[in-house]
Write a structure and sequence with these properties.
mainly alpha, 2 domains, transmembrane helix, 92 residues
Length: 92
């Protein structure tokens, strides 16, 4: 899951411009490819760790559905807050 970056289109264009100036247009695809591979390896490693933790928990009889219950409670709380604040937001 990616976190939202609060960067506007103009700021992104400026960053890309600086990257092109510093590294040159020839190196940008290579840098992007390297970053993509690094992000993929990080994601794969994270998924491996998660699966190992899940396997270990199941092997030891630990209930892993606790997070699902917590997620349901959080979603319910969000809905309740939206029900309460919905009319207030519309009036502003």
């Amino acid at each position: 899951m990616l976190l939202p970056l609060f960067i506007s289109g103009t700021e992104i264009a400026f960053i890309i411009f600086i990257v092109i100036i510093v590294f040159g247009a020839d190196k940008v695809p290579e840098i992007a490819r390297g970053l993509g591979k690094g992000m993929r390896q990080l994601k794969d490693a994270t998924n491996d760790i998660k699966s190992e933790i899940t396997k270990s928990a199941e092997k030891n009889g630990i209930d892993i559905d606790v997070t699902k219950d917590i997620r349901k409670e959080i979603d319910k709380a969000k809905e309740d807050i939206n029900d309460i604040t919905g009319p207030v937001k519309r009036n502003l």
